[in-house]
Amino acid sequence: MTVSSDTRADARSRVLQRLNRPSGPSRQREDDRVWDVLVVGCGTAGLVAAKTAARMGAHVLVVESGRLGGDCLFTGCVPSKTLLAAARSGADFDTAMDRVRDTVTAIAPDDDQESLEATGAVVRPGRVRFTGPGEADVSGRTARFLQAVIATGASPALPPIEGLADADPLTSETVWDLAELPSRLTVLGGGPIGCELAQAFAGLGSTVTLVEVESRLLGAEDPDAAAVVADALVADGVDVRLGQAATRVDATGVTLADGSTVAHDRVLVALGRTPRTGDLDLDRVGVETDERGFVVVDETLRSSNPRILAAGDVTGGPQFTHVAGVHGSTAGSNAALGLKRSVTDVVPRVTYTHPEVAAVGAPTHDLPSGWRTLTTRHAEVDRAVAEGETAGFSRLVVDRRGRIRGGTVVGPRAGESLGEVSLAVSQGVKISGLAGVIHPYPTYNDGIWSATTDDLRRTLEGAVVSRALKGASRGRRLWLRARDRVSDR
């Protein structure tokens, strides 16, 4: 008899429930319980992992040392996007920070303890140290488990720059505690966080200097996209210093490698992230980490210890909330039901400057042999012309077989347009497939569509195809004339 995977999953869920069911007239002591799934950390990845596992019938213990909701809600995407929107609307600093607090308050119930416990999960404050196979210390209490999901996330890194630690540096976590707008702000780092916060604070009235050691901003993105963002920052009043490293920092300024100094009231560091794994004692349970401390996982998010999975930023993969959510769902179901679901490598990303930079899939530069790019400048997109937003572009990466393998969109709300490209990449859509989809007019998505239709038009206008089409047209014309002569007899 063939047993379906769903039947096996249901059976395992029932067995797990029986193993943890209190026996006898007295309630089983919590310290004696063996949890089906222990979730360590309750940001996006931990929340989704816990809810997923609990809804599948597993008995789940969640341990969080801080606030439920994690970086995204309190110090990441939610406050930063609110601040950017407030700055673009012309709000002053106090109004902008009020909007940030109001937005966090409005969204927080989605991630609170009540919503988590409604799924059946148990939430316990504390810190976790793994002590042995299937055991962990939770702030002095022993928790035994069958499977565990590490979702402790990552924190802003503070590099060993002379004087930095004593200069009271701001990070993407602490900037939200500011009580007043810095008159002069130096931002170290030209990645997405540095660019976004530099533009936001410039819009709020700070004199902002952005320092980046590389020769361009947004090193992971299309060079043309990085140039558009650099021009936008300069237009907004940001002093962009490229190819410069900070060698010393104090409370009043930054010294750069060329000997020049930048005076400031505060310095904000946006130079990468470091994992929160140092206090977990992972070596005691055979969990491998890389040289930076991130947990090494396979495509199913299992670590070198098959009883322990990891999800979200702590894995060292793309540091995005949407990735953490998918990781949480995958790890939660794999831990609860013994599945082997894997995570996709098609990960869209957006830098929320104005204009936005949105990208997915294969990079648009350093292409493999036979691959090419299709580009529509937004000066040729009517919606962009109408709104005076012509600095951007839409660019697709196409392989030898005509399949769309990646793309970059630069423009207002480019992240909204990227969903179409992400779908095309994940499903292996060809140029002709996307070109055959009717798009509403006028929209910024015309840029993506035009890139495909223009390419097909150029193909049709090529010498070989053109001769073939002309031959087919001549043949049809002769056939129609012959048919008409026959019908006239």
Description:
The chain has 489 residues and is α/β, with parallel strands linked by helices. The protein folds into three domains: 5-21 and 29-68 and 112-155 and 274-337, FAD/NAD(P)-binding domain, CATH 3.50.50.60; 164-271, FAD/NAD(P)-binding domain (3-Layer(bba) Sandwich); 355-461, FAD/NAD-linked reductase, C-terminal dimerisation domain (Enolase-like, domain 1, 2-Layer Sandwich). The chain is 36% helix and 21% strand. The chain contains 14 helices and 21 strands. The chain has helices at 5-19, 44-55, 70-74, 77-88, 93-107, 113-117, 192-204, 223-235, 321-337, 382-387, 414-427, 431-435, 446-461, 463-488, and strands at residues 34-40, 60-64, 122-125, 128-132, 135-138, 141-150, 154-156, 184-188, 207-212, 239-242, 246-250, 253-256, 261-263, 266-269, 273-275, 308-310, 349-351, 356-361, 372-377, 393-398, 404-411. The strands form five sheets. Strands 1, 2, 3, 4, 5, 6 and 16 form a seven-stranded mixed β-sheet that branches. It has a five-stranded antiparallel β-sheet with strand order 17-18-21-20-19, with helices on both faces. Strands 10-9-8-14 form a four-stranded parallel β-sheet, with helices on one face. Strand 9, helix 8 and strand 10 form a beta-alpha-beta unit. The radius of gyration is 27 Å and the shape is globular.
What is the strand and helix layout of this fold?
Layout: H1 5-19, E1 34-40, H2 44-55, E2 60-64, H3 70-74, H4 77-88, H5 93-107, H6 113-117, E3 122-125, E4 128-132, E5 135-138, E6 141-150, E7 154-156, E8 184-188, H7 192-204, E9 207-212, H8 223-235, E10 239-242, E11 246-250, E12 253-256, E13 261-263, E14 266-269, E15 273-275, E16 308-310, H9 321-337, E17 349-351, E18 356-361, E19 372-377, H10 382-387, E20 393-398, E21 404-411, H11 414-427, H12 431-435, H13 446-461, H14 463-488
Parallel strand pairs: 1-2, 1-6, 2-3, 6-16, 8-9, 8-14, 9-10
Antiparallel strand pairs: 4-5, 5-6, 7-15, 11-12, 12-13, 17-18, 18-21, 19-20, 20-21
Helix pairs in contact: 2-9, 4-5, 4-7
